[in-house]
Structure formats: C-alpha cells, structure tokens
C-alpha cells in the first residue's frame, strides 16, 4: 500500500502541518485496531486513510496516535494532494465521505486546494476552572464548539498567544478534546488577520502545527469580530502556516498549498 507524508498549508517542505496519507485498496475498511496501529507508527498529529468508493467518490478517516477524530482539515488537504499528484482523480472537485459528512476539495489555478468544511457551532461559555492557569495567561472569552470538541480561548494579544508555554498535563483536564488559543493580529501589514495555536495532548498531540478543523471555529469567531467573511489566519507554531478562510454560512472554505516530502510503501498489511 502506498503511504506518503505531506506537509499541508505550506509551499515548502518542513513547514506547515505534516500528515501521513495511506491509500487503501478498494473494499471495506480494515479493522480499526490496524488503523490505530498505523497511526501510532507514523506518530504524526494525524494519519489520513483513503479508499475509493464504487461511485468514484472517496472515503476518508483521520487518526491521531491515540484516537480517531471527527474532522481534520490538513489531513483532507494532504489526501487531496496525494490523490491528485498520483493521478488518481480525474473529476474535480474531489468528494470525501467522512464522519463530518461529505467534504469537497477543489484545486485552484494558483496551486492551492480549497476545502469545503462544516462551520463549527459556537456557544459562548464561561472560562473553565483552571484554564488560565493551564495556559499561563489570562483568558478574555471562551467558545464551546459542540461536537467538534475544541474549546476556543481568546487571549489579550498576539504576543500572549505566541509566548504561551502551557502546562500540557493541565490542558488534558479541560472539558474538550483540544484548546485553540487566538488573538487579533497586531501587525496589520503582516498578511494575516488573526493568530492562533492549538493544543490537544489528550488526543496525543501536544501542539498541532496548523489545524484546519480549529479554523472552522476561528473563522466565524473572527468574521463576527472583524465584520467580514474573508480572512487570513496564521497558526503560530514552530512550523507555522497560513490559511485563507472564508465564511459561507454553515460552511467554511479553507485554502492552502501542500507539498510531498516522503513517498513509500506500507508493508504491514491488515490481517
């Protein structure tokens, strides 16, 4: 079986967010235990498993080293890039059947891939006990995202977001799969409107480099704050990545580049 490592939301290797993409043979899904073993072996924030459906669409699942997740933007971007560069898709957009419904990915003339994802449902909530202490920073406001499982925490400045050194053990005790911290961009000439970071140690991901799923919540959050639907977000991890974001009602469109850094063969076939 073909397996690749692809850096998503970047135009250059060793930046953005790496995802493993495993192209499965046609037929039913392998046992979940095997999928989890492969994801642990790859030890990236997500491994995407793709298989062709009889109607020409694709089935797609995402696993962290510890658990399956309901939505993964960078894994979807990486999977689309793998299928396109491998000559496996003739029709566009590419349609994926996932735990979050049918997602589409459309290549653009400039080389970016645009993802159509469901908008997260945001509910303002009180700052959970212990969150400020876990982050090591005051929290201005919080949003719950329901089934997405991400808590959005607004901090006072971009500087605060970039300077965080959170207590990851304490983050795991928060009532969410992961915590996205965000603030408005301080430099209006920097090419982005807001900044973020994302921590999900309970899912086996201490800090995710660039998180598409979190931007399905960050996009409506900042669209309301800034009064426009087209935005650019910068995820300020060590690797970093830019995301072009557009709010389209109950959908969010995220666009970015991807680059393949490893191509290989997975010899541990499911039994």
From TrEMBL:
<dbReference type="Pfam" id="PF02567">
    <property type="entry name" value="PhzC-PhzF"/>
</dbReference>
<keyword id="KW-0413">Isomerase</keyword>
<feature type="active site">
    <location>
        <position position="46"/>
    </location>
</feature>
<protein>
    <submittedName>
        <fullName>PhzF family phenazine biosynthesis protein</fullName>
    </submittedName>
</protein>
<dbReference type="InterPro" id="IPR003719">
    <property type="entry name" value="Phenazine_PhzF-like"/>
</dbReference>
<dbReference type="GO" id="GO:0016853">
    <property type="term" value="F:isomerase activity"/>
</dbReference>
<dbReference type="GO" id="GO:0005737">
    <property type="term" value="C:cytoplasm"/>
</dbReference>
<comment type="similarity">
    <text>Belongs to the PhzF family.</text>
</comment>
